[in-house]
Amino acid sequence: MYTIKSNELTVTIAAKGAELQSIKHNENNLEYMWNGDAAYWAKRSPVLFPIVGTLKGDTFVFNGQSYHLSRHGFARDKTFTVTAQGESSITFSLYSSEDTLAIYPFAFELHIIYTVQNDELTVTYRVKNNSEGNMFFSIGGHPAFKVPLVNGTTYNDYALHFNKTESAGRWPISNNGLLEKEALPCLQNTQVLPLSKELFKKDALVFKHLQSDTVSLLSDKTPHGFTFTFAGFPFLGIWAAPGADFVCVEPWCGIADSVDSDQQLAHKEGIITVASEATFNKSWNVRFF
Known about the structure:
Order of helices and strands: EEEEEEEHEEEEEEEEEEEEEE
CATH class: Mainly Beta
Helix content: under 10%
Number of strands: 21
Largest sheet: 9 strands, antiparallel
Strand content: over 45%
Radius of gyration: 19 Å
CATH topology: Beta-galactosidase, Chain A, domain 5
Distance between the termini: 24 Å
Structural class: mainly beta
Strand order of the largest sheet: 6-7-8-9-21-17-16-13-14
Mean pLDDT: 97
Shape: globular
Low-confidence stretches: none
């Protein structure tokens, strides 16, 4: 385990998956991360790369050849190398290998940089294309935050508050993990999504191209919560495992295949294209209070 600190926060990250394990506030003594209880969901904040969500038939086609990737890709199961570390920042790195090239035909570097400053955590994804041609990929976060956050409150005491009024449907997920063709009503001229465990009975809430770029976990029964900023991420997932005491706020550059996908990687909705030797950078940020 690796730890970075500011005056306000202590953050712990594992080398496996470069996965956040703990975010503790040094002043209010609160833990903000889900505890990874395997009875519900054993992960805490997996990194989604080189795909987000599920591929149709767990398969994509590139240059006429089929490749197979399981849901959310392989980065979350790989052990990263620490390539830079200071008191308040750390960089985890993963490089393409014979194993990855067999299932994903691009030479890459994936760097995940965690930085704390005051009461904020910033997570940066940096992807370099070391292939000769264009590289196609998706990337996203999946952090799970503890709800209820403080003793004496319940799950239903909390809500997610968007920074802009939203009228947006949720894109339902089929039984095999693909997006259906039509959205269902969800947010209707509102900035507030009240939390309940029934909300996730049919898997995650998947949103495309929201007006908002921040969402806050708030309750009128406690002054504590967080504000999550996801500017530049075109897709957002909100999810919890059935019955579990957490909520995931998932910023995505990429999304699951639709039920009518042609499986061509270059045609995939939300796919990122990076030229040879070029680098992609994207960050999300959370302020805890």
